[in-house]
Task: structure prediction
Amino acid sequence: MQNKIQQLIEESERSLAPQFHSLEQIAYHNQKKVLQAFQNNRIALRHFAPTSGYGYGDEGRDTLGALFADIFGAEAGIVSPNILSGTHALTVGLFGLLCTGDTLFSIAGDPYDTLHEVIAGKGIGSLADYGIAFKKCDLRHGEFDYDGIRAGLSDPSVKVVFIQRSRGYEWRDALSQKQIAAACAFVRECGFEGCIFVDNCYGEFVEETEPTQNGADIAVGSLIKNPGGGIAPTGGYIVGKRAFVERIACRLTAPSIGAEVGSYMYGYQSFYQGVFLAPHVVCQALKGGLLIGACLEKLGFETSPAVTRPPYDITRAIRFRTREELIAFIQAVQEASPVDSFVQLEPWDMPGYESEVIMAAGCFVQGASIELSADAPVREPYIAYFQGGLTYEHCRYALEKILEKIVRE
Ligand SMILES: *Cc1c(COP(=O)(O)O)cnc(C)c1O
Result:
């Protein structure tokens, strides 16, 4: 069996050579972009220094925001360890921009699972509790539904148009920058003057441009995903048009202080180093994901995106035939991890998710999904989502474990 598995992996690697080459070219482009932003912002050792208390004049914090803005082609940015996760960053962003009577309009279907309660929860301080309405327009066969978008925008209460770049827990490809650029242009053609807001989680550095370079006003994401490069210990970012970023800063802190406060006594080196490494790490994860996808496709499992298509985020979905295969896959990822490899995983009712989930995250940074990780709602159809991988070699090693286990099942 060992020989067969090695043969399958080596064959797949050979057939993926052209895709690997184009991913490496994207990584090089993005590495250059990041380095130029470091140079433009004259990053120096003093920017890594810790601060305490209010953090007035905290150069490390302010420059980190400017650096991210530069990388993302935006006017301003907030990058903070006080943004606790992607969900928190998105929540702060939405509450910063929307007032009672306004409507949030998602044009890429349902937002990510952890936003459902943020939008519509009852009696927990959700957008709905503050009188902010929500409506959505589903994608059609993975494309924006332009008629539906035009109809939705005829409602003058729409103040934020929301686009989720990544797939979330959906069997669809992530949106490409080309699709996002076309949708942003269309939304403007319809006369919309509010904020186009992109949930950028899992998408950073996958293509050569970011949504804020393609017509979006705000992009938001998590530092324990792509732009943290596996090094940032926590945090999130918000980049975009200055006026919007300032409003969001007032919501993150308080209206009187905005982005002027916030200290961090562990220093900022890991955030700077993380975003420096991120283009390379994202490329490793993409190559690893393609390899795992290619081998499982050869064994007859359906994967999304199909291996022949370019990836537009770092996640990949695999449809298994049974609950047992699904759980075996997730367990194999855990067993191949550098941390907590001995843990026997079980499905559980995780806060923020609507059905039982099982998650493999044997990570250095707790739950970091830029590290090789996998999760699945345990319900039909049995789809596992996996993402990340700090090194291609780790993904390859995990693949051996996965194949051993699945073939046995
Ligand atoms: C991960 C993710 C979120 C939420 O981020 P957390 O850090 O898990 O709170 C939101 N949207 C998308 C598309 C994500 O992938």
Notes: The radius of gyration is 21 Å. The first strand starts at residue 76 and ends at 80. The CA atoms of residues 45 and 269 lie 8 Å apart. Residues 269-298 form the longest helix (30 residues).
